[in-house]
Design goal:
By secondary structure, the chain is α/β, with parallel strands linked by helices. Helices cover about 30% and strands about 20% of the residues. Strands 2-3-1-4-5-6 form a 6-stranded mixed beta sheet, sandwiched between helices. It has a 6-stranded mixed beta sheet with strand order 8-9-7-10-11-12, with helices on both faces. A 3-stranded mixed beta sheet has the order 15-16-17. Strand 4 (about 85-90), helix 3 and strand 5 form a beta-alpha-beta unit.
Length: about 575
């Protein structure tokens, strides 16, 4: 069992930095602004050969009213009671402050092992404040640096002395992985209240203020015989409204929680659900391939609950068709009504999200879907799906082998996804279908399916065309710049613009205009076509215009003999045709 270590201290002394150092990765949000951490955050860590369960806490404030700082102090006191060892951090450069003395007195009254560490002790600036810690009565201070990793060996030795070895021996191995369940939504939608209601304790800070949660806080929980890891996230606002650095870090942490979750519960305020931000969060969840559950929180404020729920389901089907059939749970985290319906819906969609379909069943369904709605013909040739198989689950991913895969229309792909979801009872589960086509062994040099040679040839041609287009654009740009420079220089010198074409004046001739005269006389030779020659001005060739009617011109139309009626040759066989109307055709 790992050693539970609570890292405590006043605000902005480096607790989250040391927490990330011991955890081995940046889990907690770190900023120069004090009061960034508000909730308890748990993580597994290791120091040497010592396994640790780290608890990052909020900065200690000496208040006891109903404010947010008082609720943060209550969370810190709960962490001290839960931990096996408390690591008290103070700033070595500022020395011991009155708030450190108040907190040290609180730790002494608890009666649990405490190690005091002087953080930010690197360099000469931190040497003066190390000796001031002796007056707190918590033993010898250990100079460390959470940012640079100094003093970790001394801290390891102090932990071994403070806690007996049998309390942190590793005697259990959990093989069952918990279901990772992320609770997301807009600010002040009731996410933390819902988690507190599920686990039955005030584990997370809640209140009327919006944006209380900043880090993504994970809480391990057992529902029945199932292990569940609940992840509370910061509220997501529109990207245009996120301006502060701290809120940007919180948004990145929430998106990372969605990426690593298995099931995402989208919590919406029932009084005004499905705003644009809710739709964007749902779309992000589907693109990440996570199972989605809709939760209508603050359901006790709705009067006509049946009509509101029916309208919400219809709106969800219309606005988010890619997650059609996702479960909808209406509940109230404040009163607890409807909370018992959430986990059955989560386990049902988690099972569907992890489903695997047999290859034979898939191909039987594919033939049925093609008979119901045949694939379309693209450019006169029909796309022919041939074979289908599932490659992985979580989310269910399928590969479809088809001819002309690159020309499969998107609407037919959506038809296959919707039919697959309906036939195998996978409501609300994001499905992935990859369409591939085998290489044509008889097509050499063409872009064939997903073959490497054709694809490389196609890409090479594309690059060559792009290079030619870029070269032409460069030439046009250079010519335009040169024309602009020449026009500018001419304007400065008072000369006309050389780029503007000047009108050309036509030269007039004083010689009289000569008109073409027709040639008199007709050729009297028989069988010759009469030709009239016309000579025009300019370097044009002469034209020969025939005056003989076309029906008198024989085979030699340009001066040959006129063709007469053909006479039968002696000894030849003649087939008579119709020589006039009303006469029968001869044989």
């Amino acid at each position: 069992m790992p050693l539970k270590l609570a890292i405590v201290g006043r605000p902005n002394v480096g607790k989250s930095t040391l927490f990330n150092r011991l955890a081995g990765k940046k889990l907690a949000i770190v900023d120069d602004q004090p009061g960034v951490t508000r909730d308890r955050r748990y993580a597994d860590g290791r120091l040497g050969d010592l396994d640790l369960q780290l608890i990052d806490t909020a900065g200690f404030e000496d208040v006891a009213d109903e404010s947010l700082e008082a609720r943060m102090r209550a969370q810190t006191e709960l962490a001290i009671e839960e931990a096996d060892l408390s690591l008290f951090i103070y700033d070595a450069r500022e020395g011991v402050t009155p708030l450190d003395e108040v907190f040290a007195a609180l730790l002494r009254r608890r009666g649990k092992p405490v190690i005091i560490a002087a953080n930010k002790a690197e360099g000469k600036a931190g040497q003066s404040g190390i000796g001031e810690a002796y007056k707190l009565g918590l033993g010898e201070p250990i100079p460390i640096s959470g940012e640079h990793g100094e003093g970790m060996a001394e801290l390891y030795a102090a932990m071994l002395e403070a806690v007996p070895e049998d309390q942190y021996s590793d005697d259990e191995d959990d093989e069952d992985k918990p279901i990772r369940l992320a609770i997301v939504g807009r600010p002040n939608a009731g996410k933390s209240t819902l988690i507190n209601r599920l686990i039955g304790e005030q584990r997370l800070l809640t209140g009327p203020e919006a944006g209380i949660t900043r880090d993504s806080i994970s809480v391990d929980w057992v529902w029945g015989d199932k292990k569940v890891r609940l992840v509370d996230t910061a509220g997501l606002r529109k990207k245009a409204k996120v301006q502060e650095k701290l809120e940007k870090l919180s948004t990145q942490d929430t998106i990372r929680a969605i990426t690593f979750a298995e099931v995402v519960v989208l919590v919406m305020d029932a009084t005004h659900p499905f705003e644009i931000q809710d739709l964007q969060i749902a779309d992000l969840t589907e693109r990440e391939g996570r199972a989605l559950v809709f939760v209508l929180a603050k359901w006790d404020l709705i009067e006509d609950q049946a009509a509101t729920l029916a309208a919400f389901r219809e709106h969800a089907e219309r606005m988010l068709p890619q997650v059609r059939g996702a479960p909808v749970v209406a509940l109230s985290g404040e009163t607890g009504s409807g909370v018992n319906k959430l986990m059955p819906a989560v386990l049902k969609i988690h099972k569907d999200w992890s489903t695997k379909v047999k290859t034979r069943d898939l191909n039987d369904w594919l033939q049925m879907a093609m008979q119901r709605h045949p694939p379309p013909a693209v450019s006169g040739r029909r796309v022919k799906p041939k074979y289908m198989a599932q490659t992985k689950a979580r989310p269910p991913t399928f590969v479809l082998f088809s001819s002309r895969a690159d020309q499969m229309p998107d609407h037919y792909r959506r038809y296959l996804i919707n039919s697959l979801r309906e036939s195998f009872d996978l409501p609300g589960v994001p499905l992935r279908i990859t369409i591939k086509s085998g290489a044509n062994p008889y097509a050499d040099g063409e872009a064939k399916g997903h073959s490497g040679r054709g694809k490389r040839e196609f890409e090479r041609r594309e690059r060559e065309e792009e290079r030619i287009r870029a070269s032409r654009n460069t030439v046009k740009k250079s010519k335009r710049l040169a024309d602009e420079a020449a026009a500018k220089a001419a304007a400065e010198a008072g000369l006309p613009d050389p780029t503007v074409k000047q009108p050309v004046k036509k030269k007039t001739s004083a010689a009289p205009k000569v008109t073409a005269a027709p040639v008199e006389g007709v050729v009297s030779e028989p069988g010759k076509a009469a030709v009239k020659s016309v000579k025009k001005l300019g370097p044009k060739v002469q034209k020969k215009v025939s005056t003989t009617p076309s029906y008198k011109v024989g085979a030699k139309s340009a001066g040959g003999k006129a063709a007469g009626p053909k006479r039968p040759v002696a000894g030849s066989r003649t087939v008579r045709g119709n020589t006039g109307p009303g006469r029968p055709k001869g044989r």
